[in-house]
Amino acid sequence: MEYQYPFSLDWSKDEVIDVIKFFELVERAYEKNVSKEQFMITYKRFKEIVPSKSEEKKICNEFEESSGYSSYHVVKKAKEAEDGQSITMK
């Protein structure tokens, strides 16, 4: 991994950790797989920290530019997946 995770200086230490966990699960969806439930719980927490759609898009685009991993596509696939299913972007 040769990139940095996007974050805001306004976030608390715990919020930064939770946002990083979200992006780690996006990575895992591309590299291995992640359960829908685990991903959606983490995404829900991410949305509590970043409730604005425009801010979410900005942060996720920063992550995609540096990593090549699309948070948008993983979230979309997770929302479409059935309960109990694993998400993989391979």
TrEMBL record:
Q: Which family does it belong to?
A: Belongs to the UPF0223 family.
Instruction: State the source organism's domain of life.
Output: Bacteria
Instruction: Tell me what this protein is called.
Output: UPF0223 protein Q75_05365
- Cross-referenced SUPFAM superfamilies, in alphabetical order? BH2638-like
Pfam families linked to this entry: UPF0223
- Matching InterPro entries, A to Z? BH2638-like_sf (IPR023324), UPF0223 (IPR007920)
